[in-house]
Queue: 3 jobs
Job 1
Amino acid sequence: MMTTDIFLWLLAIAFLAACLVLGFFVLATRRLAKEAERRVPASGRFVSVAGNRLHYVEAGRGRPILFLHGLGGQLHHFRHTLFDRLAGDFRLIALDRPGSGYSVRARGASGKLGEQAALVAAFIEELGLEKPLVVGHSLGGGVALALALDHPETVSGLALLSPVTHQETAAPPQFSALSIRSPLKLKLLAHTTAIPMALKRAPQTLAFVFGPQAAGDDYIVGGGGILGLRPRHFEATVTDFVALEHEVGRYESRLEELEMPVGVLFGTADQVIRHEDHALPLAGRIKNFELELVEGVGHMPQFASPDRVEVFVRRMAERAFR
């Protein structure tokens, strides 16, 4: 009897300790999220499209250029790096993709490329954009390709930065923390350990994403990086990552259908995805195609080489709007 009582006491103490640890992580996550939103508040407009509440910023006048950020990113990846350079000649619109930044994803949305492409097409129609040039970075480049293939009448051309274009058999080990397929597990981790652990691993993550260049002191606030330290943003990133399985291959097989101008700028030192796998195979498959390789630059060329990216976007705009 005494042994049973001791066991129950130990079990109760262990349960209480677990609750205290989880409570600590919940409070830490809430503090980090509030601090992120204090330092980088919503700064644009909101529009409701197909059950999604989309946040976007706009600047300049002229022919429209629409910017789509990559996995785990948000609109400041472009606003911070390119808007001042291009706003004098174009109407610039940068969008928080569903769930990222301050955009709220519709309930039940899957994050698949075709779904996101349809939403971007509806967003273009909602804003009355006349066949914009679409600039897509990384996963945003994959969304841009899906948009051009499924809704070719909505865009004039594509300018893709380090885009995801081909299905990979295995993701780099740095993405292992995003391979969460259970919605319940994802929700639990997002509101407990995921955000504090992301903060702890931030130096290694930034070195992987930006390397061999440094992220720069202005990335956390000016580039919006701190917005990734929020549960909703983590959930969206995981959802997008898991949805990529088998999705890229569906569009990879249709590249020959593209008629519009398509340009790709890719750093040869990209550690996230390789230009040998996602850029070189496009040559000969897309009719109106150009490729620019930037020696020694990593996965974030808009930060590492904004002058080169500005010239590239202007050149693709000239071709698309000709």
Job 2
Amino acid sequence: MGFYGKGDDRPDWKKGNAVKWVAVVVVSALVGSAATFATIPMLANHGVIPASIQASTDDTGGLSQTLPTSVNVNVSDGITEAVKQVEPAVMGVVNYSQVSDFFSQNNKLQATGVGTGVLFYKKDKYGYAVTNNHVVDGAAKVEVVLGSGKHVQAQVVGTDPYTDLAVLQVPVTAVKNIQPARFANSDNIEVGEPAIAIGTPMGLDFADSVTAGIVSAKKRIMPVEEPQTQQTLDYQAVIQTDAAINPGNSGGPLINIHGEVIGINSSKIVAQNFEGMGFAIPANEARSIAEQILQTGHAVHPALGISGYSLNAVPEQYWPDVPVDYGIWVRAADSSDAKAAGIKSQDVIVSIDGHTVKSMADLRTYLFQKQPGQTVTLRLYRGSQQLNVKVKLGEMKSVNTADTPSNDGSSSDSPFSVPNFFGY
């Protein structure tokens, strides 16, 4: 059927035609009703519709009870209850940086960024919240803003640039009446299940904003970037969602319909003709990194024990004579294990345990799937000679990026700026 206007396409509504149309409509309605009633018992038996709305018939085939006109399912009730459970634990996070006053020539603290955090643990004198590393990167001071509007100074316990996570500490008296959020097992999430984001998009004026969507994908490989230079540090598997995530949502929780945190919101794709593509760090990874930071003040990752650069970050005139144009150019073997394995300066590493590595980010991605103390096999070129070497992995501790601004514009993957030591 279509929509008819006042032009030549209007059908001829003569009396005979009208009778035929009415007859068709009546017959269609009767056939449709009979088919519906005939299928109700089958649908009820298979659990498609509740048995309570199945109609029964008398001996003459007539209906002995009336079908209800509708079935009400209020999905919003579940979202509302989930938000009520978690929202008190969500807080704004304000990054204050030292800026120079042009007139007085003195430095002063100024709010330079706002993100979100979520309380996940309380003990003794302190409460602890998790957020993104890029929210507190370079901060000289950090404040959290509670749901009541109260500003509380926070201490950055530790950060991990490679997973873009950080842990904040606040006095327990400030959060004594707030229940920490529960974290779900993010391995058990399902594509299509509800996903709810809570955060502070566009600043504190929009604190505790709630957006809802679904889990669009469980594991998308996305880059983790250094906040100041936007250089790719690593690639990690993240949750994709179409729940709206905007600047300021970073560090806030992505929750399920049960009010459990399934991820920490971290990024979105911002490009023309793209929308509804946000990403969150899975709850299991966030919990593991947060626990490490709580215990030692830093996260621990396996280390190869070398310093080096992506070959494509080195000017070609300095390349060693190797038959490849990708890989990791070794500046030096720093650890005793790397030296014992026979790794030398000017070597170019092209794979780890059979996985091709074209950049430092590739190397970290595969390396971080291992544990300190494990042994990996590297394929490398020394000139035109291809070698396989086995290396025992050491340990690398993440640095605290707060109060250590790196906004000098240098790239950590270039040998002609700040060296990128990938080792101890």
Job 3
Amino acid sequence: MNRIKMIGIDHSKASVAYRELFSFTKTSATAAMETLKGKKGVSGCIILSTCNRMELWVSAEDGLEESLYEMLCQLKEVDPSLYEEYFIQREGMEAVWHLFETSCGLKSKIIGEDQIITQVKDALNLARECFCTDKVLEMLFRTAVTAAKKVKTEVRISHKDTSAIDGAIEGMKRTGYSLAGKTCMVIGNGEMGRLTALAMKQNGADVTVTVRQYRSGQVQIPLGCSRINYGERLDFLKNCDLVVSATASPNFTLKREDVEKAERKERLLMIDLAVPRDIEPSVAELPGVTLYDIDSFELHQENQELNQSMAQADHILEEYVQEFTTWYDCRDLIPVIKGICNNAARDVGLRIHKEVSHLEIGDAEKKKLEKTIDTAASKVVNKLMFDLRENLNMDTWRECVEAIAKIYPMEEP
């Protein structure tokens, strides 16, 4: 039986400096998963890498001897004695609950943030593309995403859609900084860049977005925002009161030496929302420059409202966790149960065929009726089998399934 295991580093245990060391781009995540999938004992793996966390998920066979932490350190070519305190490992149901809560934003730095659902789904899709997932992780991640969507639809965790930029804007407001009338440059035209530009515009800033030339025809800039080529960003600094960088680039978008040489205003506020970081940290040492990173801000929510919302979310998640657990515990018996359902339905059909044939209806209606009865019988038996699972311990339930399978055995392929 495969075991679900994960190891993660996130904002609750490590600063952005450590998180970026273990972060993955799409390309590096693909290479890492392909390497891991080739290891003995790894049936499937998925890497979830965001601004605030990096998690490695593995469907582990009994032959897996190497620890996930050792695997990560090998991939990143770092000394394993230096960073273990920043990681947490989970297994089994603890890991399952963690993914479900993470997927709906309950473990995010900004509680209820919306991007994590897409990030979890994208992590699964990337693992699929490089053939690195397996049935266990596939079902786990798909069910977690489905649960998160239901939580998003039915539970009001926050007053509005939230993301890292919302936390930054709220943080700036608390310090008395107003965006109204400010000239803002947003570096990055992905999802985070789009959200940032939109939020800045809605708060009264004059927003210009950088666009890579090779993507200039594909990028949608929020209404009311201007655009410049990415290569013009340093020349544009002289106009800026505020610069926000939010890309998925593995390299700095703004280096210290470039910012130091560039013409700029006496006071310049810079916000780096990327992991790994976009703006070289030593830029903060330049006169007149104030630099914030993604760890600098968080949203403050009412505790009572938040607690009620999280309780509602947990109630929804319980249903989906149970659904996954039932599948996980019973997955080896699913073909047997399917055979029982099909054969039981066929038995019902044979028993009522004579009565149906005597009905004064056309042949097409008779076939439709028989198909409806067949489907209904199969569903009833399936429900009976899994309802028994809820009321019996696993060993007793397995004995029941095996006994019923002797009455309605699977057909030989």
